[in-house]
């Protein structure tokens, strides 16, 4: 419910786009005197797709996110787009695979990337889980990533049980490795060491943000919007724990 | 039978051979080749033997005289999974191809996708690299076609299935599978009744290359034959950017999904009918 709480606290006014699934919250608010679009994926116990009822990004969510972002692009005013990220996973299910959930998530990533290329400052605010395909579709194409400091805020490629099964390890072995290998860890401090976050900040009540929490996060979002100085993701490179990513690019350029 | 004998399997080739087979004869030039030994900094500390090319081959050359960069994933190394180095090779190559186009050099890209997605031993750096790859495909696609090929036998899964969905054109064979979540993971997360990872005919019927093509989620369906793949990729490169990008059809797909009765479990024929109507 964090995503919904922060969406309600930050946005104002009526729904900005008609015809979206109930699992998406999309509205425009004002930040620093300019219109800003807020987008969140939320739980929907009545979702027609049962595997997407608890906040997962599924078929309707992927295509719906694309529509919500496309609508912002079509307004032509380069309004900033804030993805409020609290997504436990993509939807895992038979219907989802059969109907091409990968294509739905591609549509969402496509729209966020095109918004960024079209000059919209795109900011992702991580208030809960940011897992795997769900994060790729909702947030990871942002110019700037901001995470709240909290044990419930985490970024990862796969849940622990599945990751253990796929890598033929026990969950305990996986946790032991995660403690010494930063990219494998589930906590936000380890993730921050990879250089992918623009800012982290603490709030007093992450589940039920206070007026002061909302004001501070709003201020941080505004700073991030103003900090956007390009249309690519190069601002994420440079951390020592991600040195190979820069090294490889340098070699490619030399040998190109 | 003569047709079968005259074919040369593409699926049986490794990543480097595949790239070489698609490029005009004598034009293959590999960047960061294995002798430079740019390897994963994360695997050996976990007891996994790294590979000198980290499972990704980047090759420049030409196809029918057109400037091309190919990124080929080696499905035989760690299931074609993408870690920091392999992911950065693909993202960096696509970024440079887009930069070329902004300077008037019309470099195109071909992605040979045999991958389970993120390499879990490098989890968050693999995921970050795949986000970079998505960004670079969307950027380059504005100028030139980015062609995805899923030939098999690994297939294309995880975050890289999203990359496949971003390509200007997608080519599949009967050996290909394309899906977001691997069968084992769906079974783990959703249970055996939802998805039986050992029921291969069932999985193939929903996610195999033929089904993806027949339901409009791939653009070309070709035999596992080097010459046919070469001809298909060449024709698509010459075609230029598509008029309508599949990943930009939200209204269409939302309308189709709204028509679906989502209560019963689904079969392959239902997907084809829903997405393609009379074509199936």
UniProtKB/TrEMBL annotation, chain A:
Superkingdom of origin: Bacteria
Coiled-coil spans in chain: none
Listed Gene3D superfamilies: 2-enoyl-CoA Hydratase, Chain A, domain 1
InterPro entries: ClpP/crotonase-like_dom_sf (IPR029045), COA_CT_C (IPR011763), Malonate_gamma (IPR009648)
Sequence ranges assigned to domain CoA carboxyltransferase C-terminal in this UniProt record: 1-227
SUPFAM superfamilies named in the record: ClpP/crotonase
NCBIfam families, per database record: malonate_gamma
Protein name, per record: Malonate decarboxylase gamma subunit
Upper taxonomic lineage: Bacteria, Pseudomonadati, Pseudomonadota, Gammaproteobacteria, Pseudomonadales
TrEMBL record, chain B:
Signal peptide region: none
Keywords noted in UniProt: Transferase
GO molecular function: acetyl-CoA carboxylase activity; carboxy-lyase activity; transferase activity
Keyword Nucleus: no
Keyword Protease found: no
Spans through the membrane: none
Domain CoA carboxyltransferase N-terminal: 1-251
One GO BP: fatty acid biosynthetic process
InterPro entries: AcCoA_carboxyl_beta, ClpP/crotonase-like_dom_sf, COA_CT_N, Malonate_beta
PANTHER family named among the record's database cross-references: ACETYL-COENZYME A CARBOXYLASE CARBOXYL TRANSFERASE SUBUNIT BETA, CHLOROPLASTIC (PTHR42995), MALONATE DECARBOXYLASE BETA SUBUNIT (PTHR42995:SF1)
Name by which UniProt lists this protein: Biotin-independent malonate decarboxylase subunit beta
Origin species: Pseudomonas poae
């Amino acid at each position: 419910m964090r995503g919904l709480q922060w969406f309600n606290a930050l946005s104002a006014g009526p729904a900005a786009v008609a015809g979206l699934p109930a699992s998406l919250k999309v509205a425009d608010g004002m930040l620093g005197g300019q219109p800003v679009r807020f987008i969140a994926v939320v739980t929907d116990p009545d979702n027609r797709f049962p595997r997407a009822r608890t906040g997962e990004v599924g078929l309707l969510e992927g295509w719906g996110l694309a529509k919500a972002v496309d609508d912002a692009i079509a307004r032509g005013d380069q309004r900033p787009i804030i993805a409020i990220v609290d997504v436990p996973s993509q939807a895992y299910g038979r219907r989802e695979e059969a109907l091409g959930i990968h294509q739905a998530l591609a549509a969402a990533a496509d729209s966020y990337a095109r918004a960024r290329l079209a000059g919209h400052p795109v900011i992702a605010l991580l208030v809960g889980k940011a897992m795997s395909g769900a994060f790729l579709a909702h947030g990871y194409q942002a110019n700037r990533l901001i995470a709240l400091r909290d044990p419930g805020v985490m970024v990862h490629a796969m849940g622990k049980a599945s990751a253990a099964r796929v890598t033929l390890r026990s969950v305990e072995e996986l946790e032991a490795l995660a403690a010494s290998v930063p990219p494998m860890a589930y906590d936000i401090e380890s993730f921050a060491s990879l250089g992918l976050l623009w800012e982290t900040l603490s709030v007093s009540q992450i589940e039920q943000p206070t007026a002061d929490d909302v004001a501070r996060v709003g201020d941080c979002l505004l700073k991030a919007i103003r900090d956007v100085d390009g249309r690519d993701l190069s601002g994420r490179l440079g951390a020592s724990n991600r040195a190979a990513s820069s090294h490889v690019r340098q070699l490619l350029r030399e040998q190109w | 039978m003569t047709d079968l004998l005259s074919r040369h399997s593409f699926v049986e080739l490794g990543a480097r051979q595949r790239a070489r087979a698609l490029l005009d004869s004598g034009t293959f030039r590999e960047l960061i080749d294995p002798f430079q030994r740019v390897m994963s900094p994360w695997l050996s500390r976990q007891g996994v033997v790294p590979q000198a090319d980290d499972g990704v081959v980047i090759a420049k050359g030409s196809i029918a005289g057109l400037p091309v960069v190919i990124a080929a994933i080696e499905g035989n190394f760690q299931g074609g999974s993408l870690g920091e180095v392999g992911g950065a090779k693909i993202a960096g190559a696509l970024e440079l191809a887009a930069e070329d186009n902004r300077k008037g050099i019309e470099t195109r890209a071909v992605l040979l996708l045999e991958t389970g997605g993120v390499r879990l031993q490098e989890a968050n750096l693999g995921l970050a690299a795949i986000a970079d790859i998505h960004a670079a495909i969307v950027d380059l696609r504005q100028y030139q076609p980015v062609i995805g090929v899923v030939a098999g036998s690994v297939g294309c899964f995880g975050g890289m299935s999203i990359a496949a969905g971003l390509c200007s054109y997608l080519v599949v064979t009967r050996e290909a599978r394309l899906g977001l979540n691997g069968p084992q993971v769906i079974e783990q997360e959703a249970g055996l009744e939802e998805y039986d990872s050992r029921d291969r005919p069932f999985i193939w019927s929903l996610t195999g290359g033929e089904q993806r093509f027949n339901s409009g989620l791939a653009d070309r369906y070709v035999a596992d034959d080097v010459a046919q793949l070469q001809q298909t990729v060449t024709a698509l490169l010459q075609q230029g950017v598509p008029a309508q990008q599949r990943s930009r059809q939200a209204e269409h797909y939302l309308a189709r999904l709204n028509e679906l009765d989502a209560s019963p479990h689904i079969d392959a024929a239902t997907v084809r009918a829903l997405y393609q109507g009379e074509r199936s």
